[in-house]
Specification:
Strand content: 35-45%
Number of strands: 4
Order of helices and strands: EHEEHEH
CATH class: Alpha Beta
Mean pLDDT: 96
Length: about 110
């Protein structure tokens, strides 16, 4: 069976938290690569109120089979009560890059 790959989107309240989460995921070899995009503005409903916040976005490249491990690590270390942890499938990619994801993660 061919390997399945995903990109996981995770928002964080600031780049400090984003950097900490990225280190946890890469140091544990659950993510091959994590990009951090600062300066994200989010509008969302929470507990009946519309909120507007500055956040950072993590783009996590990994294997689909590692999603549950990543979600557990993020939930344990994230300051949000309900952190965004959303996986999107990678439907195609540079074969060498995808092989690198496989070789880098465990």
């Amino acid at each position: 069976m061919a390997e399945s790959y995903i990109v996981i989107l995770i928002t964080a309240p600031d780049t400090e938290v984003a950097n900490r989460l990225a280190r946890i995921l890469t140091d544990s070899k659950k993510a091959a690569c994590v990009n951090i995009l600062p300066g994200l503005k989010s509008l969302y409903w929470w507990q009946g109120k519309l909120n507007e916040e500055n956040e950072a976005l993590l783009l996590v490249k990994t294997k689909a089979e590692l999603f549950d491990d990543i979600a557990a690590l993020v939930k344990k270390s994230h300051p949000y009560q309900v952190p965004e942890i959303i996986a999107l499938p990678i439907v195609a990619g540079n074969p060498e890059y995808l092989t690198w994801i496989t070789e880098t993660t465990k």
